[in-house]
Write a structure and sequence with these properties.
Elements (H helix, E strand, L loop, with lengths): L2 E5 L4 H13 L4 E6 L19 E5 L5 H10 L4 E4 L6 H6 L2 H20 L4 E7 L22 H20 L3 E6 L2 E2 L8 H10 L4 E4 L5 E2 L2 E2 H14 L5 E4 L5 E2 H12 L6 E4 L14 H4 L9 H14 L1 H8 L2 H11 L7
Helix pairs in contact: 1-7, 4-5, 6-8, 6-10, 8-10
The structure holds nicotinamide-adenine-dinucleotide and thymidine-5'-diphosphate.
């Protein structure tokens, strides 16, 4: 595992993982392969732009010729697939791109990995594939019961990855991460959305009763977990990655506002997301047995994330003032009923 193709590497977690690899290993090459959708942003990779071990290729993971050319041109031996449509609310509004990228795109990458005899194919998956978890925590062997079009597209990809291992002997691993937060997360996901709204004294649209629970993990911990799976995980296996604890959305929002010194009156309860999963929870003991530990609790991750957005207005103001973002915001939130 020397020459990495990081698909979706211009997005939030992929960019953090690219930084992570270049910081922690010397004798490697990291090629980011990304379509640059609304979520792809070369600002996320400015810091590594001059590194001779880094290269960028613009391309679609669903385009087999372009994927093959990138693998050939850069003698890739490992694919880590972060590329996806990743936002649940967008999947509810329009699932089409989710099927094309998350399902068909994953299939194209698997075919390429098979054809070029790659050393490893690693799939970045999510806790959302297990569906809503009222009590207890999901183990890797639990059934997949996805409920949103996003979660269903990611679960489909996991099944295909597993099938390529069983049928063709492809050396695959899968990791299922909980909600990531930290630098460079597009301000559509709840925490960067709420932090940046609150900084501008704009209302925070809290869905439903706000009692939904998520395991908010710091993105750097997730990157270390992925690395642990790549180095020490067993081929053909799935590993959960998260803090192993959860925060209620209302408590996360209070903590975020306290950290910013902003009033709770900014919270605006709005109509719920259709099919909203109330709780995800991961059992992370399998990865811990490989020697990995998360370094941040959910609360520490929230505070650190708030600080990053306070210090990096240049990054998010560019996005939020853009045409695409403004149209998206209008479409998702303008018609939402206010709850009192
Ligand atoms: P993101 O939306 O920030 O970034 C996705 C990246 O993929 C973007 O750079 C985009 O341009 C690229 N992309 C989209 N379609 C593409 C295509 N067809 N070809 C090539 N590139 C394409 O997403 P993220 O939050 O960084 O998530 C990365 C991965 O991690 C996804 O697979 C997601 O399902 C998974 N995941 C995310 C979270 C989370 O909390 N964000 C948690 C667990 C798992
Ligand atoms: P999100 O960041 O979209 O991640 P996911 O749904 O994939 O877990 O949402 C996290 C939680 O925050 C989820 O319970 C939905 C809620 N949420 C809001 O209350 N308001 C919002 O505007 C958004 C985007 C999410």
């Amino acid at each position: 595992m020397r020459n990495f193709l990081i698909t979706g590497g211009a997005g939030f977690i992929g960019a953090n993982f690219t930084h992570y690899l270049l910081r922690n290993y010397t004798d490697i090459k990291v090629v980011v392969y990304d379509k640059l959708t609304y979520a792809g942003n070369l600002d996320n990779l400015l810091d590594v732009g001059d590194d001779p071990r880094y290269a960028f290729v613009q391309g679609d993971i669903a385009d087999a010729d372009s994927v093959a050319a990138a693998i050939r041109d850069h003698q890739i031996d490992t694919i880590v697939n972060f590329a996806a449509e990743s936002h649940v609310d967008r999947s509810i509004m329009n699932p089409d791109a989710f099927v094309k990228t998350d399902v068909y795109g994953t299939y194209v990458l698997l075919e390429a990995a098979r054809r070029f005899n790659l050393e490893r194919y690693h799939q970045i998956s999510t806790d959302e594939v297990y569906g809503h978890v009222p009590v207890g925590s999901s183990k890797e062997t639990d059934p997949l019961e996805p409920r949103s079009p996003y979660a269903a597209s990611k679960a489909s990809a996991d099944l295909m990855v597993n099938a390529y291992h069983i049928t063709y002997g492809l050396p695959v691993t899968i990791s299922r991460g909980s909600n990531n937060i930290g630098p460079y997360q597009y301000p559509e996901k709840v925490i960067p959305l709420f932090v940046t709204n609150a900084m501008d004294d704009v209302a925070l649209p809290l869905y439903g009763d706000g009692l939904q629970m998520r395991d908010y993990q710091y993105v750097e911990d997730h990157c270390e977990g992925i690395d642990a799976v790549l180095r020490r995980g067993q081929i053909g296996e799935v590993y959960n990655i998260g803090t192993g604890s959860e925060l209620r959305n209302i408590d996360m929002t209070h903590l975020l506002l306290d950290t910013l010194g902003k009033p709770y009156s900014l919270i605006q309860p709005v109509s719920d997301r259709p099919g909203h999963d109330r709780r995800y929870s991961l059992d992370v003991s399998k990865l811990k047995a490989l020697g990995w530990q998360p370094r941040h609790t959910c609360a520490e991750a929230v505070v650190k994330t708030v600080r990053w957005y306070q210090a990096n207005e240049w990054w998010w103001r560019k996005i939020k003032s853009g045409e695409h973002y403004r149209a998206f915001y209008q479409r998702l939130y303008a018609g939402r009923e206010i709850r009192t």
